[in-house]
Amino acid sequence: MTTLLTNEDKLNILNQHIKNIEYATYGLQLDILEYEASDEIEASYLAKLNARLVDLNAKKAVLDAEKDALNGTATGA
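The structure corresponding to this sequence follows.
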């Protein structure tokens, strides 16, 4: 038996993924603030934290584009 997801089902799943990325992004932003408040800062570690932040932002952008497509509001390139 095959069950197809409705558009609403897909949007609910997608919104949860977006929310998870937003939680991770905020947590990472706090990690960066805490690390920057440290007495000893290693530039390479801070660069890794910032790279993770860039990665999360890229993932969220892809999910936002998928959400627009599901909502029929995609603008295209």
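The two ends are 38 Å apart (CA to CA).
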